[in-house]
Every structure is written in structure tokens, then in C-alpha cells.
Amino acid sequence: MAYIVIMIIIIAIVVSRIVKSPNFIGERGEAKVANQLMHLGNKKFKVLNNLLLEHNGNISQIDHVVVSVFGIFVIETKNYSGWIFGDDKSEYWTQVIYGSKRRFRNPVKQNWSHVYFLQGILANRKHIKYFPIVAFTGSAELKSIKTDCLVTYKELLYQNVLDRCNDICMSDNEVNEVCELIKSYGIEDTKQNRHFHIQQISNNVIEREIKKQSMICPQCGMKLVHRSGPYGDFIGCSGFPKCKYTMKQ
Ligand SMILES: [Zn+2]
Q1: Which of 48, 97, 156, 198 is the S-S candidate for 65 at Cβ 3.0 to 4.6 Å?
Q2: Half-sphere exposure of residue 226, counting CA atoms within 13 Å on the CB side?
Q3: Closest CA to 227 of 219, 218, 215
Q4: Distance 227 CA to ligand 1 centre (A)
Q5: Distance in Å, CA 23 to ligand 1 centroid
Q6: Could you tell me the pLDDT band of residue 16, with boundaries at 50, 70 and 90?
Q7: Are 69 and 172 in contact (CB under 8 A)?
Q8: Cα of 249 from ligand 1 centre, angstroms
Q9: Å from CA of 159 to ligand 1 middle
Q10: What does the pLDDT look like over 56-92, one tens digit per residue?
Q11: pLDDT confidence bin for 8, thresholds 50/70/90
């Protein structure tokens, strides 16, 4: 009897660990967004979920890509609760939950790197428009988010996408071509590839820091310059508007 009770306790602990693990929470959030995107219908919108892509030795993991005649929607999902604070420029955003603060990578910057990655794959199709979107899926409340990029809630995502469907930039044929092209860069979702991707992110972080300290844009390699905007002074890329990289002074 005691043996059975111990077994049940062990199983309960293991299950609760899995459910609370960042991977599990992340995947649940992605599934919710994938569900929302299904409502767009697959005639006009081609939805690609959970992509692991490789191009020129770089690996990118993109939660959702929606290819349509109106352009490409690049969606990063975040499954969080609590209050969320963040802006375009900082490397990290803040989650405040039960009075304690935690930081996480700036999802807007993270998502821009996905856009640049896709632009690299589709380099000879300069007419394509890109719409980066960060969608929060948990019970998180977006408290103070200062960014030019759309940061939204999962529930609004469907309408947010439709609101941006104004100008046609691709034919139906090209939409299919682009989808196939993106998929052709897909690599197997193995532990090894994921590990390599994570390793690459940490290497990139170090490399980016070195570049930033030398006032070189970590995104495109051009010079960084001092600028002022509605939210105060900041450092931006001299390659603007082509490159939208910014950071705090
Ligand atoms: Zn730049």
C-alpha cells in the first residue's frame, strides 16, 4: 500500500514538472495561436507552424509564418502570465508576477531576427511586405509596451492580421512558391539541431555585445548613431529605414 502511495506521489511530481516546464508552456501557447490562425482559412492564407530553418549556417526557430497575397506575417508567441513591461530598445523585457520580477529576451527583437532571416531566404523578392507580430497567449496583461511593432493578445490576432490585409504584393502563385521555398529550408527538429540553435543564440549574444560597444549595428553591420525620438534619446542604426535596429543610450 505504502509502495502505491509513493508511486502516485512520484508520478504527480513528474507530471507537474512537465506541465510547468518552459517548453511545455511554450508549446501550449503555440498550439493556441495555431488554432486562431486556422480561422483565417487556408485559401487566402498559408499557415506554417513551428519552423526550424537553416540558411547560410544560421538556424532560426519561428513559431508561425502566415504567407498571403498581402505579405508575410511573422508571429512570435509568448505564453506568460502576470504584468509585462518592455520596449523596442532593451535586450530584455520584464514580467512581474506575485510581486517578483523576471526578465526574458525582448520578443520584438527576437521576432525581427526572424524577419531578417526570411528576408535572407527571399532576398530576390524585395516587393514582399513583412508584418512582425508578437502575440501573448497566457493570462498576461500588457502593462507598458513601447514599441512600433504590433504586440497583441492571442484573442485579437485574427482581427490584427485581417486589419493589415490592405495591399496585395504577391500573386496566388507566388504565395505557393514562397511557401515551398520557406519549407525547403526546413531542417529536422532534432535535439541536436535545437541545441545547436540555442548555442548559436548565446554566441550571437556575445558577438552582438562586442559590436554594440564598438557602435556597430549588430543587425546589419553599419554604424550606430545617436538619435532622439518621442520616447527620448536612443541609439539607432545609420541604415534606417532599411534597418530598424535601436538600443538604449
Ligand atoms: Zn543596422
Answers
A1: 48
A2: 3
A3: 215
A4: 14
A5: 31
A6: low
A7: yes
A8: 16
A9: 31
A10: 888 889 999 999 999 999 999 999 999 999 998 888 9
A11: low
Q: Does residue 230 have a cis bond before it (omega within 30 degrees)? A: no
- State pLDDT tens for residues 189-233: 788 877 877 777 777 777 787 788 889 898 888 999 999 888 889
Percent of the chain beyond pLDDT 90?
Answer: 50
The H or E element containing residue 131 is: strand 130-136
Q: What is the mean pLDDT of residues 35-58?
A: 85
Q: Where are the alpha helices (DSSP H) in the chain?
A: 2-20, 22-38, 107-121, 154-163, 172-184, 191-213
**At 218, is the secondary structure helix, strand, or coil?**
coil
Cβ contacts of residue 234 below 8 Å, gap of 6+? Answer: 89, 226, 227, 228, 246, 247, 248, 249
Amino acid present at 186: G
b or e along 65-99 (b: 16 or more beta carbons within 10 Å of the residue's beta carbon)?
Answer: bbbbbbbbbbbbbbbbebebbbbbbbeebbbeeee
Distances (CA, A) of 46 to 52, 160, 177, 209, 239: 17, 16, 11, 37, 32
- How many angstroms is it from 220 CA to the middle of ligand 1? 4
